[in-house]
């Protein structure tokens, strides 16, 4: 096989088949996929299914802590886990730019394989397209996933004053890592993306019978977007103690220098939880076995409906708004 | 000892210190015969006041007026239109700083130009232009330089390198503006309600505190040059209140860890080498202000994108939107909430006037951080 992707590899013929079998089938090996039918036939237990799709594009493709492949599996599996579901079956659709390195593609696909294992999920259907050089930026991956719902009625629409708000770890690592790796920002740090499969954590919470009201992974828009969405969807006020939000020194430093709010930075393995108050400490203990920075960050009230209030240690408060527009550093 | 970034600000965000300062201000303010309006000139201070909710810690007889010191906000559409046109020229890479690229001109923002195929980049340090120019020898890099006295030396340092290294493919579009002229315009309007100023600190690191001497002297308005942390701002407010209580009217420096009277002489010299004062410059929200901006000296005109691309740059003047009251907000005559279009037709995603443009503008800060009280 060539060392780089050629247009012929997207032709539907021999070269296309070689690419699929030597890269994708090799990594994703399983009975359903290898039947090579037009559609996968799935065994489903009784009960409910969770269904989610996401497309992934990131620059650079490889970054501290992860790459686009890990993102593509974590992203969709995490969305399923956030609905209390166990990720089972994924599709993987890849659009590649002509000239892309096959070695890099293999690295990406191998990472996907590792991450699928952690989730106990398999890729059962896929597609590959090649686009002429310059018409797309290197590679775009779409994954769609089906999960088996382990715990029903987890919903962002039913959070109430009986709940308490937690976050699973320190926030903003992915956003800060990607930003410092970008062109034009000459900055180096030990930061790593938080990209991580959340299903094992959710499984532990469910196994411990924690009364989960809602879960959401704080991806684009960060924790601030999640809290704002929840306040509107459930018609509540979320009051957050600013000091209780876990933020690493590195992320805080990047934010200080560039003028960002850590709560607006993207995460890829960090989630926000609304848990019934009585289970707060039990849930926190479980979260801390995965990451010691997990914290209770706030409470639900009806003081300012549909708003998120950030309270300082010296007694002032302000609204935390959803981030808008492109993330750009402040000038001074 | 290892110096960490947080060592630089931790003490200046200490909750107990902030509370203690708030108490002392409350006590002193009881002695004030009247209420006082303090203008924080710089957008960085507006941002701090909003972000830390500092107004909530002050008694009702002390108010903030948010000033014109956000370089992105006051950039007029004419200049943004220049950047837009330049970015769409053949073989041009337009480089600027951060949030400048989202400000709309009359045809759109630089983000819009980028969507049309223009090569628009933002950098954290202007020196990055050298790398971009090296990697793109067949293209012309135009640095759209903006900012107050704070960022001017960075542009000067870049020009210095461009000349020394004989780099042929970097040009400059200069939009550097100066603080004192804008402060004077505000005070010359007799209906202004400003009683005192919190002076921009980073500007003063470069210029020295001397540039504000005229305000206590000629206009009888106290000035305290302040740092940006909550403790800094609270301490500066206390210093201003004490001046009123003790019937003093002086220039004081709270940000003494970085600011002295004379400033950074080397940076000033470098600026003087390349720049001279423009006859006039239009400020969004404030209109034309004489001698309030810089221009490259004639002998460096081969580096001046305004000269090199003179024939393609639009020359028509553009007035502010009729419904926008940014001018009055900047003079302390109105509050963002009194504006008819605030939060409706004018939002951070679709700003109409200067104060909504950058997160440091008064309206954007109100929109983002709210005014819970």
Tell me what the structure shows.
The complex is a heterodimer of chains A (332) and B (373). Chain A has helices at 14-28, 31-34, 68-81, 102-119, 173-181, 199-207, 222-233, 249-258, 280-290, and strands at 49-56, 62-63, 66-67, 85-97, 122-131, 139-149, 163-167, 212-217, 237-241, 271-276, 295-301, 308-311, 317-319. Chain A has 332 residues and is of the alpha+beta class. Chain A folds into two domains: 7-149, PurM-like, N-terminal domain (60s Ribosomal Protein L30, Chain: A, 2-Layer Sandwich), CATH 3.30.1330.10; 163-319, PurM-like C-terminal domain (Phosphoribosyl-aminoimidazole Synthetase, Chain A, domain 2), CATH 3.90.650.10. A seven-stranded mixed sheet of chain A has the order 8-10-7-11-9-12-13. Chain A has a four-stranded mixed sheet with strand order 1-6-4-5. Chain A has a two-stranded antiparallel ribbon with strand order 2-3. In chain A, strand 4 (85-97), helix 4 (102-119) and strand 5 (122-131) form a beta-alpha-beta unit. Chain A is globular and about 65 Å long. The termini of chain A are far apart. Chain B is built from 15 helices and 13 strands. Chain B has helices spanning 15-29, 43-51, 77-87, 110-115, 128-135, 152-164, 179-188, 201-207, 214-218, 230-245, 265-274, 305-308, 326-330, 354-357, 362-369; strands spanning 36-42, 62-69, 92-97, 119-123, 140-147, 170-176, 196-199, 223-225, 251-253, 275-277, 280-283, 287-290, 294-296. Chain B is of the alpha/beta class and 373 residues long. In chain B, helix 1 (15-29) packs parallel to helix 10 (230-245). The longest helix of chain B has 16 residues, at 230-245. In chain B, the strands form four sheets. In chain B, strands 2-1-7-8-9 form a five-stranded parallel sheet. Chain B has a four-stranded parallel sheet with strand order 4-3-5-6, sandwiched between helices. A two-stranded antiparallel sheet of chain B has the order 10-13. Chain B folds into two domains: 1-74 and 179-263 and 325-373, HypD, alpha/beta domain 1 (Rossmann fold); 78-176 and 267-312, 3-Layer(aba) Sandwich (Rossmann fold), CATH 3.40.50. The A-B interface holds A 183-187, 249, 252-253, 256-259, 304, 307, 309, 312-319, 321, 324-326, 328-332 and B 4-6, 9, 15-16, 18-19, 22, 43-44, 47, 50-54, 56-57, 71-72, 97-102, 111, 121-125, 128, 146-148, 150-151, 202, 230, 347-349, 358-360, 367-370, 372.
């Amino acid at each position: 096989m060539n060392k780089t992707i050629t247009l012929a590899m997207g032709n539907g013929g021999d070269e296309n088949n070689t690419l699929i079998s030597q890269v994708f089938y090799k990594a994703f090996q399983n009975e359903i996929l290898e039947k090579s039918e037009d559609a996968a036939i799935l065994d489903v237990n009784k009960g409910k299914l969770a269904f989610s799709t996401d497309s992934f594009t990131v620059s650079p493709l490889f970054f501290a802590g992860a790459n686009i492949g890990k993102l593509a599996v974590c992203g969709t599996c995490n969305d399923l886990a956030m609905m209390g579901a166990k990720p089972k079956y994924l599709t993987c659709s890849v659009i590649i730019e002509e000239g892309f390195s096959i070695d890099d593609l293999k690295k990406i696909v191998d990472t996907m394989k590792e991450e699928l294992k952690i989730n106990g999920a398999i890729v059962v259907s896929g597609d590959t397209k090649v686009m002429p050089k310059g018409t797309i930026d290197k590679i775009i991956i779409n994954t769609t996933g089906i999960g088996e719902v382990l715990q029903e009625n987890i919903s962002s629409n039913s959070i109430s004053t009986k709940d308490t708000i937690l976050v699973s770890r320190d926030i903003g690592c992915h956003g800060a890592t990607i930003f410092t790796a970008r062109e034009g920002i000459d900055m180096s740090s030990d930061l790593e993306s938080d990209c991580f499969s959340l299903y094992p954590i959710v499984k532990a919470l469910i196994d411990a019978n924690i009364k989960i009201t809602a879960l959401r992974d704080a991806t684009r828009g960060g924790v601030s977007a999640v809290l704002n969405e929840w306040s509107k969807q459930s018609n509540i006020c979320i009051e957050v103690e600013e000091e209780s939000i876990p933020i690493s020194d590195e992320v805080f430093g990047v934010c200080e220098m560039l003028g960002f709010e850590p709560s607006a930075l993207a995460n890829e393995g960090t989630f926000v939880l609304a848990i019934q108050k009585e289970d707060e400490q039990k849930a926190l203990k479980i979260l801390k076995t995965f990451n010691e920075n997990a914290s209770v960050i706030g409470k639900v009230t009806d003081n300012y409906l549909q708003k998120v209030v950030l309270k300082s240690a010296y007694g002032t408060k302000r609204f935390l708004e959803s981030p808008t527009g492109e993330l750009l550093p402040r000038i001074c | 000892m290892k110096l960490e970034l947080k060592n630089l600000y931790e003490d200046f965000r200490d909750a107990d210190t902030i509370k203690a300062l708030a108490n002392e201000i409350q006590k002193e303010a009881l002695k004030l015969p009247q209420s006082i309006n303090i203008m924080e000139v710089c957008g960085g201070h507006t941002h701090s006041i909003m972000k830390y909710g500092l107004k909530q810690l002050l008694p009702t007889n002390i108010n903030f007026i948010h000033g014109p010191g956000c370089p992105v906000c006051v950039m007029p559409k004419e200049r943004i239109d220049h950047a837009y046109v330049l970015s769409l020229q053949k073989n041009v890479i337009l480089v600027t700083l951060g949030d400048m690229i989202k400000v709309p001109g009359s045809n759109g923002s630089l983000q819009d130009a980028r969507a049309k195929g223009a090569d628009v980049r933002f950098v954290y340090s202007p020196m990055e232009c050298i790398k971009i120019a090296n990697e793109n020898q067949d293209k012309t890099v135009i640095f759209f330089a903006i900012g107050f006295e704070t960022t001017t030396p960075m542009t000067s340092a870049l020009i210095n390198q461009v000349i020394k290294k004989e780099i042929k493919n970097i040009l400059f579009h200069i939009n550097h503006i100066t603080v004192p002229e804008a402060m004077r315009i505000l005070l010359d309007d007799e209906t202004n309600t400003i009683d005192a100023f919190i002076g921009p600190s980073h500007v003063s690191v470069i210029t020295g505190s001397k540039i504000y001497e005229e305000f206590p002297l000629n206009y009888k308005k106290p000035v305290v040059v302040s740092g940006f942390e909550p403790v800094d701002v609270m301490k500066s407010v206390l210093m201003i209140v004490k001046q009123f209580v003790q019937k003093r009217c002086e220039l004081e420096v709270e940000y003494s860890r970085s600011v002295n009277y004379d400033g950074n002489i080397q940076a000033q010299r470098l600026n003087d080498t390349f720049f001279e004062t423009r006859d006039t410059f239009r400020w969004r929200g404030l209109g034309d202000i004489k001698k309030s901006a810089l221009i490259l000296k004639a002998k460096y005109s081969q580096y001046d994108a305004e000269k090199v691309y003179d024939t393609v740059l639009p020359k028509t003047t553009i007035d502010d939107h009729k419904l926008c009251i940014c001018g009055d907000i900047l003079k302390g005559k109105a509050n963002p909430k009194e504006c008819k279009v605030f939060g409706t037709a004018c939002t951070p995603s679709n700003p109409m006037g200067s104060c909504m443009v950058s997160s440091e503008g008064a309206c954007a800060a109100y929109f983002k951080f709210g005014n819970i009280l």
